[in-house]
Amino acid sequence: MIDDSDGDEVWILSLFSRGWWGILLLAIACVLWFIAANNRVECEAKTCPAGEHAKLLDHECVCVGPPR
């Protein structure tokens, strides 16, 4: 799944690009951030057992809980 780090990486690349490449990469970063936000909402809507909650972490939707 796409998460915020994908958009961040493309955004950083856009900072080092010149001309229209930088603008194109910035637009791609915005699209990736939008997809990541939708993925995060979709992941958080899932249910987990034993009081845990779903979280998008390292490109995966995982169930996390407090440390024991």
- Strands of the widest sheet, in order across it, are 1-2
- Strand residue percentage: 5-15%
Largest beta-sheet details = 2 strands, antiparallel
Low-confidence blocks of residues = none
Q: What's the layout of helices and strands?
A:
Elements: H1 4-15, H2 20-44, E1 53-57, E2 60-64
Antiparallel strand pairs: 1-2
3D structure, described in words:
With 68 residues, the chain is of the alpha+beta class. It has one domain. The protein is built from 2 helices and 2 strands; from the N terminus they run ααββ. Strands 1-2 form a two-stranded antiparallel sheet. α1 packs antiparallel against α2. The longest helix has 25 residues. The chain is elongated, with a radius of gyration of 15 Å.
Jot down its keywords.
68 residues, alpha+beta, two-stranded antiparallel sheet, elongated
Summary of the model, kept short:
This protein is an alpha+beta fold and 68 residues long.
